[in-house]
């Protein structure tokens, strides 16, 4: 029986058996689809912007959606996938067969989001932008400089030599017109296409709240002391660790004569003071402490999610 709210493409007839339905779904995934923009123009990824989206069927299948590139990414393997590649990837690399119900929901999702079906339909992002999230990081490579309109990049020098010779009619033993760059590739199979990225662009535009608050408090001098030890051997909450507040003017917090006046000032912040940043920050911290204690209750991956929030990728073996 078709679950309520799940749409099957091709409108399966009443009484149609599951294998026939699955076959129709697979045919839908194999059908070619047009590029979302209808143009091969490369997408310009913006520095500092987070593109990956999850939720729903993506969480069930362990995928991210990159809406700007109209592709999917395997969270565990950190590789790009098209809609047609997902069922096979899950079976070969994860030993999991996608159920008819999940496949139906996945097909609906891909059609609605216009996810590409085949790797050859995908256009790499504009060169020089930030690295694509969710795939293997940038590696050393080369980008062509023979022509301003040429966007060719590659990992190995021999391929750049061949490109110069075949595309730009360069002499076999002549100078190779290229420069050293950082490159990425979306897909790892035969015919992979590399594109130039700028790792420095990844952090551009990302603000630093601690620095902003410091600039707003010119009367406070920079601290030279190290962080204060945790009280009663307790670990500070994840938010405090992430914000690095233990290193924020510890000399003021260490001495009660300076700590108490600062706390008194904190309680007198106004909505119109420095555009309300202090009032909003206080509300954020209070909301966080209330929500953090229970937001993952009942979730099967609560422990794993908590470890990732606290440690990032560097989860200790005994953590």
Automatic annotation (TrEMBL):
InterPro entries according to UniProt: OrsD
Pfam families associated with the record: OrsD
Domain of life where this protein originates: Eukaryota
Protein name per Swiss-Prot or TrEMBL: C2H2-type domain-containing protein
Lineage: Eukaryota, Fungi, Dikarya, Basidiomycota, Agaricomycotina
